[in-house]
Amino acid sequence: MLDEALYPGMAAASVVVQLDVLYVGLTALTLLHAVSKRGLISGAALVAYLAAHTALFEHVSLFLGGTHCHATSSLLPMVTPCSSINSVLFYVPWGYTSIEAARRLDLHWAAFPFAVGLLQIGFGAVYEMQGPWNGFWRWPDGDGVIASSSALKAWDGYPPILHEAKQQKEVATIVDGIFRVSHHAADALTDRLYGFPLLAPHFHFAFGFGWASGLLITGRVSSASPPSLIRFCVAGLAVFVLFLPPIWITRGLGDAASLPLSRSVPISLAVSAIPPLISCREISGLRTSSSASSPFGPDRLLFTISLIMHAFMLSFPWRAPTPPPPGLFSLVALTAAMHLAAQYVCCFVAGTGRRDAIKKEA
User: Fold this and answer.
1) Amino acid 6: pLDDT
2) Burial classification of residue 157, based on how many CB atoms lie within 10 Å of its CB (0-12 exposed, 13-18 middle, 19 or more buried)
3) In terms of Cα–Cα distance, which of 194, 196, 200 is closest to 250?
4) Separation in Å, CA 220 to CA 106, 108, 293, 355
5) How far is 321 from 282, CA to CA, in rounded Å?
6) What is the tens place of the pLDDT at every residue in 281-340?
């Protein structure tokens, strides 16, 4: 187990343990929900796949993109010197709850990826925006250094391929225990607010958009039945590519209009809300179902997962060693409120008209 002091400026062990407990707990609740909806084997297999997929995605992101380095844990072993288990487990409830909530809306297929992306940014941005301030992880500094530690010397030259790309700094490099960002990642992470890169929360939207688009490759996604594990496997492979277009489009249009990310990202997210809002007329029950077995009852457990996440993140400033600026707390609180309102609609309001129609038919 790595010493917590290997990375100066990172969160103390007591803080990281809180993250460990939070994401182990949320992953356990996600497993419970998946099993209740899919059965023991299928539900457990899906959660296991999401965790394994995340470990691979984080590995690629950290050691090829060279984006960040997580604080070490005194409770759980690290996946790599910069990948904590809590950072991997975060992805499981994050992606699962967003897809499940959006699925309940029965949106038009073209609106579904936007809804999942927006729900993901609501769930995850409260964590993303507070991470750098509280030392949950480190982004590259002004010299491009992500981390410097003797623990990283064993990883010098990693990965043992892409030699030309490493020479050109097209991927991250580890030399003499110094982990440096790649050129393209450094450029993307330059514009920051309260210590976090403005494109980092937008990645949450893009990642959800990619997962949802990947699921649509194999058919429509609706409230009638959860997508199969095979469909998730296909989406997991596709997301490595499909999460990129929203980021490219936002950056490209921002550059074309000479807008900083502080403006282009909010504008992009606001525009992204239009397709779900147009399609959400189905929530009001204008389209009814004749199947009494349709899953239109309230989903309290799904909502509870998000509620616990926001309760932890909104209360964290009172436990943090260094209180956050009022602006950062306000941004986190606004994001949490908007996401909980959306999750409430998905978990308790969606399908109300169809439930009433089913009761009348019964």
Assistant:
1) 56
2) exposed
3) 200
4) 10, 9, 19, 22
5) 46
6) 655 544 444 333 345 689 999 999 999 999 999 999 999 888 999 999 999 999 999 999
Peptide bond into 159 cis (omega under 30): yes
Cβ–Cβ < 8 Å for 138, 116: no
Six token digits for residue 336: 């949490």
pLDDT value for 66: 78
Whole-prediction pTM: 0.89
Cα distance between residue 30 and residue 44, in whole Å = 10
Q: Where are the domains of the chain?
A: 12-139+182-361
User: 20 vs 13, 53, 85, 145, 147, CA distance in Å?
Assistant: 10, 19, 7, 26, 21
Angle at 182 between CA 178 and CA 187, to 5 degrees: 125
H-type alpha helices, the chain: 13-38, 40-60, 85-103, 112-128, 131-134, 163-167, 183-188, 199-216, 229-242, 244-256, 261-272, 274-279, 300-315, 326-344, 352-361
Query: 88: exposed, middle or buried (C-beta count within 10 Å: 0-12, 13-18, 19+)?
Result: buried
The confidence band for 262, taking pLDDT boundaries of 50, 70 and 90, is confident
Tokens linked to 206: 């893009």
Q: How far apart are CA 122 and CA 119, in angstroms?
A: 5
Looking at residue 61, what is its pLDDT? Answer: 82
- pLDDT at residue 286, as a whole number: 43
